[in-house]
Specification:
The protein is mostly beta strands and 671 residues long. The protein contains five helices and 39 strands.
């Protein structure tokens, strides 16, 4: 049982780490308090457009999914509208501000400082990130790369694990919905001397719903069945008066079926990370991590309903780290110096199958290695009510060891290609200001640039969403962001906050799935994707009632010439012009919560030529927690209560639908 060995090894390591803390406490030394968090947010962070999702919001998401919690931030989107129960995982990239073009993540997603994107594909394993394990999520739209690392093209999503204050003792919940699907989760946390240890797990499974409209179903149409688990162990211990060590291990596996019987896919991963945080005069944050990931997928013909492609194995490894130093340079300055490194290597193994005979027609193998070494410096300077910030970053990147090999069904070599190694230096800059005009008004402005390397998937792996074939492109160039924004934050009274931001972002050499012919696309660099828009949010708490709303209007267009001239002026695929949502919550007594969420996503196009439309969709969700005892509560959740038809895919009239009306009920232990 590899998973069992993994968790046992992680537990042993964590216990070893906290043992000195236990001894210190027993000898009567001064107790050291650890937090399990990183360094404090620098003073100029609010100069960039930022929204925080707190723990109360995270644990009351009606679907229980982290991607739906992120959807409360207007401007956040995945490539498709499906969540991680009914989407192909490779389509679950995360982006912001409509800076898309394909399914790759253009927002950098960090869990306790560690990048979570898949090393090969760039998607985010959302099903492995349980909302109940988190303390908060900090979403920065725009902002460039800076100290966060390459890949923060559209923004940064920082996930912060909950500490022992939230996860001490045992907590868990068990729910079932009206289709008989289940969600089980639990955590156990303990203080060990001056440190703590938390182990948690989650298991989601169900027969799913039909993504194919009823009128289009065939005998082999299948429900979007899902079966996924994740387990995490996290230990935190002091190793000196002002230095703490954090260790985390995560293992997960998720299996899904989409559209037809036999069209099965899976993802799995094992991640481990170590983090040292120093809070003395010379503050520092040092992180090291390793990730082992895999993906499988079977493509089924939509005309003969038999397998035509078995993407049987896509192993990938992510390896990296970051070191940030904040030297004591004076009370008015916060100086950040550091470096980060990320290596992504992987390869695909796939088998092409005849739809008529079932015989193997080809076996393909492709892959490569990408690396990025970044050096950064940034300073925040506080001058009374004015905070200035400026930073620079230099990236040394490589794209190397790329290859493609194909054999026929008999094993005879048909073609083999080795791609030339590439490398280069890229500089990025960012700066901004925050001016607190009064106790209730803050003005901000920022300008920035950023870098994203094409993923191994974009470079080397073709894919099929039958009947459309999308080819890889080993010659893809890096994407470059240039952007600026202006904003104002207003706090008219205690408990009420409003935010308004206007932005202009442009991604040069944007990678898009460009239509070349009927049912044939290829990943290409187009001139740019240019997005301009307005983002607004409000958060108000008035006694027992709270109201949170967020909206984004984005005018995004592809800019293309030559082969991409037909795209010029079109909206990038899968990008709505308007998105917005609002949540009204009432807490009539301790541990009670009644909440409802209304969300609207505007119309968007399936493809780059604006031929297939996905209509706008408005959904209504609800959440209720009613305590039965001091430690046990009844939980009721409702998704899409109006049973809105949510079109998630439309390829020439071949349609997939999102989650229908779904009602959950269960119990929660540990309030």
């Amino acid at each position: 049982m590899p998973m069992l060995k993994y968790l046992m090894a992680g537990t042993a390591l964590a216990l070893t780490l906290v043992e000195p803390a236990i001894a210190q406490d027993a000898e009567g030394d001064e107790v050291i308090v650890v937090t399990g968090a990183g360094l404090d947010t620098p003073p100029a962070a609010p100069a960039y457009d930022t929204q925080v999702i707190d723990r109360d919001q995270l644990v009351s998401v009606p679907s229980g999914r982290i991607e739906d919690a992120l959807s409360t931030v207007a401007g956040f989107q995945q490539f498709r509208r499906s969540d991680s129960r009914s989407a192909n995982a490779s389509a679950q990239g995360a982006t912001l501000r409509a800076l898309g073009g394909n399914a790759t993540s253009r927002a950098l997603v960090l869990l306790d400082g560690v990048p979570m994107s898949d090393p090969f594909f760039g998607y985010i394993p959302f099903s492995a990130i349980a909302p109940e394990r988190l303390a908060q999520i900090r979403v920065t739209r725009g902002g460039g790369s800076g100290p966060f690392g390459a890949g923060a093209l559209a923004g940064t999503i920082e996930l912060e694990s909950a500490g022992i204050d939230a996860l001490n003792g045992f907590a868990g919940q068990a729910l079932v919905n009206d289709r008989g699907e289940t969600e089980l989760s639990g955590s156990a946390g303990a203080k060990l001397g001056s440190g703590f240890l938390v182990a948690s797990g989650r298991w989601d499974r169900g027969k799913g719903f039909f993504t194919t409209p009823e009128a289009d179903r065939v005998p082999l149409s299948a429900r979007a069945a899902f079966d996924g688990w994740s387990a995490q162990i996290r230990g935190v211990a002091p190793i000196a008066q002002d230095i703490e060590l954090q260790v985390r291990g995560l293992a997960y596996r998720d299996e899904r079926t989409l559209r037809f019987e036999g069209a099965d896919s899976s993802i799995e991963g094992q991640d481990a990370s170590l983090r040292l945080v120093g809070r003395g005069a010379w503050k520092f944050d040092a992180i090291g991590y390793v990730q082992a990931r895999n993906f499988t997928n079977i493509v089924v013909s939509s005309s003969r309903f038999v397998p035509v492609l078995d993407q049987r194995n896509t192993p990938a490894t992510g390896l990296g780290g970051k070191f940030e130093l904040r030297p004591p340079v004076g009370g008015a300055h916060v100086l950040r110096l550091g470096a980060d490194y990320r290596l992504a290597e992987g390869e695909l193994f796939e088998t092409a199958i005849s739809a008529f005979s079932g015989a193997v027609t080809a076996r393909r193998n492709a892959g490569g290695t990408n690396t990025d070494l970044g050096l950064f410096v940034e300073d925040d300077w506080t001058l009374g009510a004015l905070v200035l910030t400026a930073g620079a970053r230099l990236d040394r990147w490589t794209i190397r060891d790329g290859f493609y090999r194909e054999n026929d069904g008999a094993g005879t070599l048909v073609s083999t290609t080795t791609y030339a190694d590439r490398a280069g230096w890229d500089a990025s800059f960012r700066g901004g200001l925050l001016y607190r005009a009064s106790d209730s008004v803050a003005l901000r402005a920022a300008a920035y640039s950023g870098l994203r390397l094409p993923t191994l998937n974009e470079l080397y792996r073709p894919f099929v969403v039958f009947p459309v074939v999308t080819q890889a492109n080993a010659a893809l160039e890096n994407e470059r962001l240039e952007g600026f924004e202006l904003g104002v934050d207003v706090t008219p009274t205690q408990g009420v906050g409003l935010s308004l931001t206007a932005f202009d972002n442009r991604v040069k050499n944007a990678v898009a799935n460009v239509t070349l012919d009927t049912n044939l696309r290829q990943r290409r660099n187009i001139d740019a994707v240019h997005a301009r828009g307005i983002e607004a949010s409000i958060a108000a708490t008035l006694g027992e009632v709270s109201f949170d709303a967020s909206a984004a209007w984005t005018d995004a267009e592809a800019q293309g010439s030559g082969f991409a001239a037909s795209l010029d002026g079109n909206r990038p695929s899968q990008t709505p012009r308007f998105v917005g949502g609002a949540t009204l919550a009432w807490r009539p007594a301790e541990n009670w919560l009644l909440a409802t969420t209304l969300r609207h996503v505007g119309a968007q196009f399936e493809d780059d030529l604006e031929t297939d439309l996905l209509p706008a969709a408005t959904t209504l969700d609800a959440f209720a927690q009613v305590p039965l005892t001091d430690t046990i509560a009844l939980v009721l959740r409702g998704e899409n209560l109006t049973d809105e038809s949510i079109v998630t895919r439309n390829q020439g009239g071949s349609i997939d639908l999102g989650v229908p009306r779904t009602v959950w009920a269960g119990v929660k232990v540990g309030l």
